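Subject: sequence -> structure tokens, single chain

Hey, anyone have a minute? Need the predicted structure for the following. Not urgent.
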Amino acid sequence: MRFMFAAFALVLGASPSAAATCESLGALSLPDAEITGAATVAAGAFTPPNARGGSPAASSAYASLPAFCRVTATLRPTSDSDIRIEVWLRSAGWNGKFQAVGNGGWAGTIPYGSLAGAVAAGYAAAATDTGHQGNTAAFAAGHPEKIVDMGYRAVHEMTVQAKALVAAYYGHPPALAVWNGCSQGGRQGITEAVRYPADFDAVVAGAPAVNWMRLHAGRVALNQAINASPAGAIPRETYSLIHAAALNVCDGLDGVKDGVIENPRACAFDPQVLECRAGEHGPCLTAAQVESARAHYAPVRHPATGELVMPGLERGSELSWATLGGPQPIDNALEALKYVVFEDASYDWRRFNLAADLARFDAADNGVLASADPNLKPFFERGGKLLIYHGWSDPQVVPGNTVEFFTRAVDAAGRDAVGASIQLYMVPGMNHCQGGAGTDRFNPVAAIEAWIAGGKAPTRITASRVENGAVVRTRPLCPYGEVARWDGTGSTNDAASFACVPAGDR
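Reply:
Had a minute. Here:
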């Protein structure tokens, strides 16, 4: 048992075996924390604060929630901290485990949908807004402690206090602590494992935005290259032309033509095949547009040293190129420029110069938000498991960034860690965390729990594609270095007809 009972009893002033009522949690005294609410929510009665409409799926998820104890608190580990957290505790049917869920973008909100999903699955759950409100970096200028809260402290403090509340409510600590997050949430999970290896037994990190500050620099530099001249701008309606050409070259490499490139790293598609011939006016690309298309795929490197700043997008991502290749850089990167790096809300991104300003990105953050440290050995030595997944067609957090981090983490821990402590699963055709033409529905938390129970990372994870509420296709997600290949006889819509085999990269 990793969590010391005596410590919880000391903090809470209660005997380890005594469970508390929901309302009594409001009177608990926790370090640097103010509990602002503790009340039972009846089954199906929860409505997110300030909810405006929402998808039918989200409304259904809340409607099907069981009764739970909802605890809200504000944490103030520093004089400039204002970290809001929520801890949800099932009134009945608790599976004995704790799941913390991550944020997206610049955070600033409680991810209620993720909380609901965790509680519906049987867990006690927790989430935080990371210490500010609103999905913007405007909080950062002049507030270094708030940047630290956003970078890692808020999640750690939330985890400590949430575990104490779980132990108080149920009379004993959770048997397992799991982190589950994608994008910003993926970065948060890996940061937790690196900085606080005792916080979680298992971390699920989807599309992790590690190396975050350099990703922002790379995004701005890529956008500048793509929009270097009006002649090179690619109209959004032309993306489908490029995508179809890429599929024509690479879709069938896995033995099946299904609108998905299984292994983009084995795809040699060059957009020059679409260049307009003399006198041709379309559908085709001008020479300048061909270079812009190539720039999407190319890594961003420091102009003077050649140092890798950000890998390029992958073949198969073309339909979503507007994310990084639109008229201006993605908002998340602009926020970093304005409020973290230059501390100037009026900063014009056109002034950014990668060669001159990259060092300023590094210095302004000083490793707080970057999360680039690959040393996970202390986490692994405690028995911790890290399951990473990423969509090959992600147009926002480039997939190569995760592959590069995984490679460095394995180098730091040793090859024996692969499959025992860390594993990466790439998802063909999936966009950022979900969506796209691939099989984007799967349960990574169930996969990591099976890993813990069996001692080895899954050799395949079955994923589904759902259309109009029905599963139309399943595929195996293979450990990195392997790809799914059709057996030549079974249904091409059935994962059982595919084997995970060694991949061949270009």
